[in-house]
Specification:
This protein is 23% helix and 30% strand. It is an alpha+beta fold. It has two domains: 7-39; 53-140, Immunoglobulin-like. The strands form two sheets. Strands 2, 4, 7, 8 and 9 form a five-stranded mixed beta sheet that branches. A four-stranded antiparallel beta sheet has the order 1-3-6-5, with no helix packed on it. Strand 7 (119-127) and strand 8 form a beta hairpin.
């Protein structure tokens, strides 16, 4: 009885089967653990100001009192994980509104601001651990 496949074809198919099995194993066991580790926030950790940062999500708006600039502040611990339940004060202009009163499970708190006066405003973030060294400038035109 003759086998309709060559040894080379059988080895190729075997390699593909093993490769697919390996990818499935990694996707089920390793990847979810990595994602959980990277996104896990801490509840009781102390904020490390030098690890924390702020970033402008939208830093240019019309000076019409309605168009909004948006700034996010991320409070992180010594391991770079978000710290939950902390408050942040954003200063540098009038009309800053915090969209959430405390940091979420990523250590993030979002602010939006409007202005009827054209100009640039340098914003600073303060928390119980001190002032973040980074600032964000928003512009209203």
């Amino acid at each position: 009885m003759k086998i309709p496949f060559s040894n080379k074809q059988i080895l190729t198919v075997s390699g593909i089967v093993v490769g697919v099995a390996l990818v499935l194993f990694l996707s089920v066991s390793v990847v979810p653990n990595i994602l959980v580790t990277l996104t896990k926030a801490t509840v009781s950790e102390k904020v490390v100001v030098s690890n924390s940062y702020m970033i402008g999500q939208k830093i240019l708006a019309r000076a019409d009192g309605e168009d909004k600039c948006i700034v996010n502040v991320f409070l992180l611990d010594k391991n770079g994980r978000g710290v939950v339940g902390k408050t942040v004060e954003l200063t540098g202009m009038e009309g800053i509104v915090g969209l959430n009163p405390k940091t979420d499970n990523m250590g993030k708190i979002t602010f939006e601001m409007t202005s009827k006066v054209a100009g640039q405003y340098k914003l600073s973030a303060n928390t119980a651990g001190g002032q973040l060294t980074q600032t964000v400038t928003v512009t209203f035109r």
